[in-house]
Amino acid sequence: EVQLVESGGLLVQPGGSLRLSCVASGFRFSSSVMSWARQAPGKGLEWVAGIYGDGTTYYTEAMKGRVTISRDNAKNTVYLEMNSLKPEDTSVYYCHFQGRESGWGQGTQVTVAA
To answer: How far apart are the first and last CA of the chain?
Structure first.
């Protein structure tokens, strides 16, 4: 069974930092492209960052410089580190994989507020 389980979402103050984790199972993690996307209240899904199995990364211009995506293939885990968080970063953050199959996690809520 394919599973993606996100964690690490919290209430954080503006300017703060956070690291999200996504633990994967049920598919070939090391060769899959892993991504993070987010959905703010009342808005559509927005892609944030992605990482290939070889570690090559790519980011949306809107968050470049404030986020870092990484992966640990031994732990089947992908991370998203976010810095200098702003209230407009408040969203549900989702983990996604793309390989022979594709799928989404259930999301983790990040709230940025004073």
So the answer is: 40
Burial of 108 (0-12, 13-18, 19+ CB in 10 A): buried
Give yes or no for a contact between 59 and 85, defined as CB atoms under 8 angstroms apart: no
Structure tokens at 105: 């996690």
Q: Where are the beta strands (DSSP E) in 1-114?
A: 3-7, 11-12, 18-25, 33-39, 45-51, 57-59, 67-72, 77-82, 91-98, 102-104, 108-112
Bridge partners, 6 (sequence order)? 22
What are the pLDDT digits (tens) for 1-48? Answer: 999 999 999 999 999 999 999 999 999 999 999 999 999 999 999 999
Please, are residues 57 and 71 in contact by the beta-carbon 8 Å criterion?
no
Give the separation between CA 24 and CA 78, rounded to whole angstroms.
8
